[in-house]
Amino acid sequence: MRLNIPNIVYAIAHPMRAARYVFHRDRISYEVLAKYLPANPVIVEAGAHDGATTAEMATFWPKATIHAFEPVPSAAVEVRRKVAMFGDRVQCHQLALGTGESVMEMHVSGDGSAGACQSSSLLSPTNALMREFPAISFSARERIRVTSLDSWATQHGVADVDFMWLDMQGYELVALAGATQLLPKVAAIHMEVCNVQLYEGAPLYPTVKRAMAGWGFTPTIEAFFRVSGNVLFVRH
User: What CATH number does residue 34 fall under?
Assistant: First the structure.
C-alpha cells in the first residue's frame, strides 16, 4: 500500500478493510487456505510469474499436485527451474487460459524478463494503471497460446481440481468461463480483484463477486484495498 492522499482517505473511510489488507498483506495465508482443502489437493495456478508462489505451495502441501500456467516464455523457464526439485507432481504449462483454443497477443510488462513481467495481460493496460503504478511499463507484445481449462483437463486426464490460485491481470473470469466442467469440483479460489479498472474490459470487484456467486462461491476473506488486492472465494 503506497502512502498517498487517495490511499489515506480510503483507509480513513474504510478502516476495517484497511486493517484486513494490512493483516493479510494482500494475500491469504496457506494456513487459512488449508482449512478448505484436502491434504493432497490438486491445484491450478494461473499467472505463475517466476514460480515463487508455485514453489511455496508445493512446499506447504507436500502431497499436492500443482499445475502452474505461465504464458510468458522467460517466466515459464524460471517457473520450471524453481519447481524442478518437486518432480512430476508440479508441472508448468506455457499457456494462457481463456474460453477456447487460440493464439492471442499478450501485453508484456517490463523488459519481458521473469523478474519484470508480472503485470503482463491479454488485456490492454489503461491510463489508470499507469497513474496508480507509474513504475510499470509495457515494452512489447508476444503471441501466446491460449486454451480453456476444460479442454486442457480433458487432454491431460485431469478430472478434479480442488483449488485455484488466479493472478491473471483482469482475465480471471474469462478463464473460469472456460472451466465450467471443472468448477463444480473446486472448493476454493484465491483471486486477484480490482476496484479500479487497470486493464481494458477487466471486470471490477462487484461484477466479479456476482459472477462467482453464480458459480456457487462466496467471498470468505477480502484482502483488498482501494485499487486492488485478493479475495478468497469458497464454495457455499
Answer: 3.40.50.150
Instruction: Provide the grid cell at 18.
Output: 484497511
Q: How many Å apart are CA 41 and CA 51, to the nearest integer?
A: 18
pLDDT band (50, 70, 90) for residue 111? confident
The grid coordinates of residue 69 equal 500456467
Provide the Cα torsion 201, 205, 209, 210; round to 10°: -50
Any idea how long the chain is?
A: 236
The amino acid occupying position 124 is: S
Q: Note the pLDDT tens digit of each residue in 118-130.
A: 999 999 999 999 9
Q: 52-60 and 73-83 are packed helices; what angle lies between their axes, rounded to 10 degrees?
A: 30
Asked if residue 187 belongs to a domain, the reply is yes
Q: How far apart are CA 222 and CA 224, in angstroms?
A: 6
